[in-house]
Amino acid sequence: MPKDNTFLFVSTNFDAATEATDRALRRLWNEYADKKLMAYAVFPCWRDMLEDFINQYDQKTIFIASHGNEYTITAQDGSPMLDESNIEIMSGRCLYVWSCSTGKVLIPKAIEKKCLVAIAYATGISAFIHQNPDGTWDLSEDSYDVFSRPIRTLSEAGKTFKDAYDDTIARYDYWINYYKDQPAIKAVFEENKAGLKLYGDGSQVALLTPLQETQKIIQESASSFIGQITSFIMLFLIITLIKSIITIK
Amino acid sequence: MDKTEVIKSLEKAKQIKTHMIFMGRVLSIDQLISEVQNETEIGKKFIEMMNRHA
Predict the structure, then answer these.
(1) Is the pTM higher than 0.95?
(2) Partner B contacted by A130 (CB < 8 A)
(3) ipTM score here?
């Protein structure tokens, strides 16, 4: 069973588009770290790294940003990171995927293989980006807003994937209205909104409560501490016993 | 919405946006205008997209 309240951030960075989303995901990962949430990251990610990280740490909720198509999500080397042949690793987990068209075939396949819930796009994703003076690329504020919304919502205690999906649709509506006099920009947000889908059981939560997580960590630490004390006492008794035997002889 | 109207919309967008990711490619708005102007595959896709939401 994947561990509740654990997150894995996954991205690639091999062109301007992936650089912008990689930088955006790193920002969000830092926000999770600031909130003391159990967030792991693989920046950038290859296929075996994704599988190893999930096998090793068993994260429940996974956020992925990369290029993709109906059948695959692309790894750092351009080969498939996730496709039909390894999609089973998403069994029992919750996903948010920012990759073109994965909602057409790959994500339904994941749900078929017992992935609990997924937010993904069934169409190509368009976004606005800009180049910074140092040459790096970032998503523009509006595109970052819709990109980050599911991740932001899911960092709040008790929020479900359905909440995350609804919040994101609401942000799309905001930008569509904001750009009502900019038909080209408005069309981009409308197209993305039409492609954004929720798959599986939307009642899933990514985070129970931060307090519960803290309690869990404290309990684990406490039991580990008690275990260490017990081992120390046992060792002390054994040494005392050996000493007594030697003395008697 | 025809090609001319799409280009007009992109010219207006150029006032506040510099680049976009479209069909997996990064394009400056000027490049996109040129793609639409020349009716390349990507240009045609952009026109289609705008018409879906016109």
Answers:
(1) no
(2) yes
(3) 0.97
